[in-house]
Amino acid sequence: MTGTIECRYYGRDFTTDEMALLRALIAADPQPSRAALSREFCQRIGWFKPNGGLKDMMAKVTMLAMHRDGMIVLPPPRGRQGRPKPIVFGPDTEPPLFPAPTALDEVRPLDFRTVVRNTREGKLWNEFVARYHYLGYKPLVGAQMRYAVHDRDGWPVAMLGFSTAAWKLAPRDRFIGWSPEMREKNLSLVVDNPRFLILPWVEIPNLGSHILAIVRRCLPGDWTERYNTTPVLIETFVETPRYTGAVYRASGWIRVGTTQGRGRYDTHMKRAEPRKDIWLRPLRKDWKRTLNR
Q1: Nearest to 55 by CA among 12, 96, 84, 87
Q2: Does position 236 have pLDDT exceeding 50, yes or no?
Q3: DSSP string, 190-215
Q4: Phi, psi torsion values for 241, nearest 5 degrees
Q5: 256 phi, psi to nearest 5 deg
Q6: Which terminus of the chain, N or C, has less C-beta within 10 A?
C-alpha cells in the first residue's frame, strides 16, 4: 500500500493507507473479533511469513500496542473475561522424597518430550516453570516449542521453552550483519530460548550443557515439522549479575552484548528491566549466509 509512514512498531513501518484500512476493518458492521481482524489485516496488506502463513500472531501483538498507545481502538475481547486462573501447585511438582541422581550416567539417556497445550504434560510444564523458574510462568510469544526433559526412569529433570525471537536487538543484528530489511525477511529463522529450568533438586555436573547439546540437534526438525520453517540460530538472555551464562558458554554459545534493560516489546523506551547478556548459538555452519540472503 502507498502513503506516508504513520507509525512504526517492532521493526515494521505502517503507512497512512494501512492504518486507514485497519481502522476501517475495526469499524465494520458487524465488528470482527480481534483474531479475525488480525487475519484479515495480514491478508489485505500482504503480511506473510516466509513459509506463506499469515503473521497474525505478530499482528495481534502489534495491534495491542497500537491500542495501548491510542493509535486505534480495538473491539473488546470475546470469550471469557478477566484474568487467567492462577496456577495451583499440586503434588506432582513437589520435590521427590527419594535422593535425586548426582551423575549423568544415572539419568542418561534423557527423554525429550514435546509439550502440547491443554494436556497433562502441558499443565505440568506450566506448573514447574511457575513454581521454580525465577521469572515464573507466562505464555510464550508467537511460534513456540516446549520440551519436558525426563531421565531414563521417567522422572522430570528439566523444562525448556522456545519462542519467536526478539524483533530488534542491536548487538545480535550487528553480529549477524543484518540490515533492517534483511532482519524483517529472515527473523523467522531465529528462535528465542526464554525458559531453561533444571529442577532445583537435580544437581548433576554438566547436565545443562548436555541438555543444550541434545536440544540443538532436535529443535530444528521439530520446529520445521510444526511451522515449516527451519531455524538456523538460537538466542537467549541471561540476567546479570544473577547468572554468569556459564552453561551456555560451555555449550558453545557466543555472548554478543547486553540489553539496554527495556524489554522486548518496549517501543517507547519507558520500561526499566534488568540488563541481560545476549547469547547466540548457531545451529548449522552456513547460518550467517542463510540469514543474509
Answers
A1: 12
A2: yes
A3: EEEEEEEEE-TT---TTHHHHHHHHH
A4: -90, 15
A5: -115, -5
A6: C
How is residue 3 written as a grid cell? 502513503
Q: Would you tell me the crossing angle of helices 34-45 and 56-68 to the nearest 10 degrees?
A: 110
- The DSSP output letter for 5 is E
Where does the pLDDT of residue 84 fall: very low under 50, low under 70, confident under 90, or very high at 90 and above?
low
Task: Tell me if 90 sits within 8 A of 127, measured CB to CB.
Answer: yes
Q: Which three cell numbers stand for residue 257?
A: 552484548
Residue 184 contacts residue 194 (beta carbons within 8 Å): no
Task: Write out pLDDT tens, residues 57-71.
Answer: 889 888 988 998 899
Euclidean distance between CA atoms 267 and 274, whole angstroms = 17
Radius of gyration of the chain, Cα coordinates, nearest whole angstrom: 21
Determine contact, residues 15/5, Cβ cutoff 8 Å: yes
Between helix 34-45 and helix 16-26 the angle, nearest 10°, is 150
Cell numbers representing residue 99 in the block: 535422593
The pTM score is 0.76
Q: Which of 246, 293, 257, 276 is nearest to 175 (CA)?
A: 257
Q: Which amino acid is at 112?
A: F
Instruction: Look at the block and give the residue holding cell 520435590.
Output: 95
Q: What sign has the CA pseudo-torsion 255, 258, 261, 263?
A: negative
